[in-house]
Amino acid sequence: MAVIGGSVAALAARSGSANDSHSQAHSALVVANDQRIFLSDRQKHDAARSGIWPVQIESLMNVRRPLKYGDFRWDERGVPDGPVAIQVDLRTQLISAFRGGHEIGSAVILYGADSHDTPLGRFPILSKAKDYKSRTYDAPMPYSLRLTRDGVAIHGSDVRWGTATHGCVGVPLEFAQRLFKVAEPGDQVLIVRSPEGKRVTHSG
Questions:
Q1: What is the DSSP letter of 97?
Q2: What's the whole-model pTM score?
Q3: Which pLDDT score, from 0 to 100, does residue 23 have?
């Protein structure tokens, strides 16, 4: 089964700041405590220059092991109130939710394949529906955050290897519940396919 890198490793790779060794790649990150990692000014600069993050990132959850299909992490402890923004990376198959620039959730996703590609770009959440069902595909889309007029949404799914969607972003059901609770219409979702970067494995 494929293993997807955690948020810290993904940031190092996606922001172009990954170096030759694991320790070098994390030298710009300051671990404030067991639960959260704060970015240095250099790391913030690199992330902003990459153009693939929806907000200026202040901190990431301290994800201690790679996430697998169906896995997610959620941690709002100590994070102040603020606007919510969401990043979806189709290459790494990760979604990250931020509040006030602080990551509060991350999960492995499903996305569209073949003739049902998930669109790239910045999308405001148009509406929310807890018990939505697709009329086109006669399929449940629980805790749906609608992104486009033609029905692309983030919603709860059975996230497992070898499956795809009809263009939506599928996330684990419990993650979808939590995201649905904090996200509101108008919040920004940035869907990207980050450039290939050096693979960095995050370890505890």
A1: E
A2: 0.81
A3: 31
